[in-house]
Amino acid sequence: MAGNLALQENWRINEGRVVGVFCFDKEFLSRDDFSVNRFQFFINTLAELKKELQELGSDLLFMDIGPQKAFPKLLKQLKKEERGLPKLMTWGVDYEPFAVKRDAEMETVFADFGVQHLSLRDHLLIQPHELSKKTGDGHYQVYTPFSRRWLQIYQEDEIQDRVKRQKVALKYLEKRLKGSVDKNFSLTWKDLLSDLSAYDSNLDEYQKKNSEKVTIDIPKGGSLEAYKQLKDFAKRISHYGDRRDNPSVDGTSKLSMFLKNGSITVPQIIAYFDFEPYQKKKSNKDTFFSELIWREFYYHILRHHPRVEKEAFLEQYKSIRWSNSKKRFQAWKDGKTGFPIVDAGMRQLKTTGWMHNRVRMIVASFLTKDLLIDWRWGEQYFMEELLDGDLAANNGGWQWAASTGCDPQPYFRIFNPWSQSKKFDPDGDYIKEFIPELKDYPVKKLHEPILGHDKYPEPIVDHSEQREKALEMYKRVRG
Q1: Catalytic residue at 294?
Q2: What does the angle CA 208 – CA 212 – CA 218 come to, to the nearest 5 degrees?
Q3: Rounded to 5 degrees, what are φ and ψ at 208?
Q4: Of these residues, 14, 52, 189, 294, which one is catalytic?
Q5: Distances (CA, A) of 325 to 22, 57, 265, 294, 344
Q6: Based on the number of CB atoms within 10 Å of its own CB, is 125 exposed (0-12), middle (13-18) or buried (19 or more)?
Q7: Is 398 a catalytic residue?
Q8: What is the pLDDT of residues 113-163, one digit of tens each?
Q9: Which residue in the list 332, 375, 377, 400 is annotated as catalytic?
Q10: How far apart are alpha carbons 392 and 289 in whole angstroms?
């Protein structure tokens, strides 16, 4: 709550007389990349937000129609009941193409009603319009110069003040963890609507119906759970750089699903760790800091180039003729390719809704450069399965792996799944955790083709042959 700048400003102007509205557009349910599991985590998070607001003396109205229809309906009712119109409508800025268009439409709606509105920075520390090349000639499309500029701006007083403001949010979360928050809001929807049921849809019913379709265990959501995860990761961050690439150990932050839902933000994480610009030699802590900058980088790219949602960032790769074998794609999704490290990752995704980041790179490289399948197929499947499915980060990661994006790995850099397996899961602990049929298989043989196994498939392709085909495929479009 305390870290939400839009809410803070509204609270200040209206002296605590603030309520929240969430408008759920049902068209979301028909999206190609809709995820039943991620939706469950999201509505659980929303329920936690409602509970939190009520504990503070406020409330959240859940309307199951899109904002373009919801707000006119709500504002007309407030006028009808002679409650008056809101003094100010505030919300956090979003950078996805759909959200940019929606927010522009809502500004028009509020203007038509004569209601003041304000959108403020939310989940990014430095917004896309605030970071450009020193020459003023456009924005960065390569991570390294972007990160250098980002770190320069990071040291400016204005940005450091932003970080300091988030320390207030962290103090609030610590107090909430101890169960001692102040009730500093003084308005609920019951005070405003005589027939609340006509406007407040049943969030509990949404949770119940969708829960019948989920296929995995859904973790707890909300800002308190996000804060607990942050504190837990703080105990391990000193080993982050050393352990983050080993999928069999608990070496990553696992904050991504909370970042996706806004339960915690990059500015809050930075404030918690008191990050300082790293010197010549990076520490483990610095390595994690750089990953947060990568996240901001992909959001900047998405905002400046919304077309990447549908197509390759690099123009020359738009015309790649992928082989797109549906049979091989299905084997990849099912974790039955005959490449243990790939199959373990895909099974982890299917059974938990999450996949280790190093393994995400391995399976993405395998799909695009071993199976020669369009990265957009993999991107969409990840969005269907990941609890942390986030357009900017997911798209950026897939285009990096496929060598079609901004600052990608070179097209000729093709991960060898056997050497990746041996390097990052040498003892086979990760593989054996998610592929039980190999639990008794000799470790030394896990990192080479498994032939004649009665329960595990043989490799569906030959990596060396597919590598040559991939190189030829990329060379043809490069000219």
Answers
A1: yes
A2: 80
A3: -65, -50
A4: 294
A5: 41, 56, 39, 32, 21
A6: buried
A7: yes
A8: 999 999 999 999 999 999 998 776 789 999 999 999 999 999 999 999 999
A9: 375
A10: 18
